[in-house]
């Protein structure tokens, strides 16, 4: 998807030449427990071809874990990821729709505890398939905005009714980090496609200070590094018109960078352009760690039926490998998945098929 890898892991004592890699497996809830094994099978199948050996550590997090232990993200899970693993796969999390005392999303907490400041979500149609041509990467700031989860509810003295407030935080440091990785991804895509464009998405016409800062710093990073990024096109788009244009003219967008909330909404919406959330991957990327994570949720309505789509997880496994420096192995996965989507009649119900999770996984494994 990104066609190149980042060299971010050297100061962790990690080398892209390493032969044995420890990968944490965090299935979470619902269909996460059905699709994460597909990622594990892909790594086991792919490893020998590329001289890699994968050791897996099963870890717990999620709503089920909270119900059993009182913690959605056990300290042991975080400690093992920090000290023993080079990467991880995270399945899905089921969160209650109403407030439950003591519970908060484990994946949001993991992003903060491990410094995973960027959520990279490629959305790409398959050449030769029936989908419209789409080939964009949505780069979502991953640690702040409304997701800092600082809220309060109080009684308005004038009306005597409740008011709920949430703080939206945009910092110069986090924005500089996300703008840099987005521009780096655009630069890599230019090397492959011959051109690239960054589109900064914001709502600074209303949120002049918070989104205004995001817009200002992104432009500053671009302008102050013209020797490196000057060949990349630079655009801005108000988020509401971005949604309209993304569905009307998806071919106009290449790399899109956005604050946390907008990036979440845009990337989930963009999945409709390529058939299903079940095929869209993501990588939570930090300076020294990466977690592959499918974009779909826990899907309790189909959990346990064996029909969840494993492709988003398999593609997320490829993204994890790319950011760990194993681009060739990742490309083998992308090619196998693309071949399944383009050629095979073996598809899960979300793509209009009747196949099971196991059948789709086996077809992709056979293409590896």
Automatic annotation (TrEMBL):
Entry-linked InterPro entries: IsoCit/isopropylmalate_DH_CS (IPR019818), IsoPropMal-DH-like_dom (IPR024084)
Domain of life of the native organism: Eukaryota
Region annotated Disordered, chain positions: 348-368
UniProt keyword annotation of GTP-binding present: no
Pathway linked to the protein: Amino-acid biosynthesis; L-lysine biosynthesis via AAA pathway; L-alpha-aminoadipate from 2-oxoglutarate: step 4/5
One record GO biological process: isocitrate metabolic process
Domain Isopropylmalate dehydrogenase-like: 22-364
An annotated GO cellular component: mitochondrion
Catalysed reaction equations from the record: (2R,3S)-homoisocitrate + NAD(+) = 2-oxoadipate + CO2 + NADH
Coiled-coil region: none
Cofactor: Mg(2+)
EC number(s) given by UniProt: 1.1.1.87
Keywords of this entry: Amino-acid biosynthesis, Lysine biosynthesis, Magnesium, Metal-binding, NAD, Oxidoreductase, Phosphoprotein
Gene Ontology terms, MF aspect: homoisocitrate dehydrogenase activity; isocitrate dehydrogenase (NAD+) activity; magnesium ion binding; NAD binding
Family, similarity comment: Belongs to the isocitrate and isopropylmalate dehydrogenases family.
Name the record gives this protein: homoisocitrate dehydrogenase
